[in-house]
Amino acid sequence: MVMFQSGETPIRSGPVTVFTQGGPRPGVLTLTNMYLVFEPSGAAPPQGEGWGGGGGPASNEYRIGLWRVRQAQAGPGPGGKVLQVNLLARVLTIQVDDINAWAAAVNQAHANAPPPPPEVAERQAMRKAGKAGPGAPMPPRRCTYCGRLSAATATKCESCGAPF
Which whole number is the average pLDDT over 128-156? Predict the structure, then answer.
């Protein structure tokens, strides 16, 4: 069961299979006004596939902020058509019951989602302005696996060890 954060409301939920490099992962996908939340019924998604922890150490939730979503659409999958969710640096492949309805719901939620966290906006602004050179202060890095912050110079997450 998803533990909703302050201001977070559910939009759609249902049984899914998330296709990962480690194989298919059955579970429940919940779309909220802020996140895609995956609750696996077996093994967790492998590190580095975009799913960050979100419910605390005892939680079985893996979250992706909607600010990272670029587009959701129907596409080819291992066993037929699937939902493809295009993120900043990867594509999630998810088997759902009603692909077109899920794609429309994700795209609509993304359009109305809150902006990226402040450190992401700061980093983007610094890169755009060309100020991310030596000596310029860099904001901390957010782990895409567990969601926690690490030092800007870290090469792996200081909390869970996932590589950046």
Answer: 74
d(CA 116, CA 105): 19
Distances (CA, A) of 69 to 11, 130, 150: 16, 25, 23
Q: Are strands 71-77 and 62-65 parallel, antiparallel or unpaired?
A: unpaired
- 49-69, pLDDT tens digit by residue? 767 765 555 568 888 989 889
Task: Tell which residue, 11, 35, 15, 34, has the closest CA to residue 25.
Answer: 15
Q: Are 44 and 75 in contact (CB under 8 A)?
A: no
Per the listing, tokens 């990226």 go with 116
CA distance 13 to 151: 35
Domains of the chain: 10-111 (2.30.29.30), 115-164 (no CATH)
Rg (CA), the chain: 16
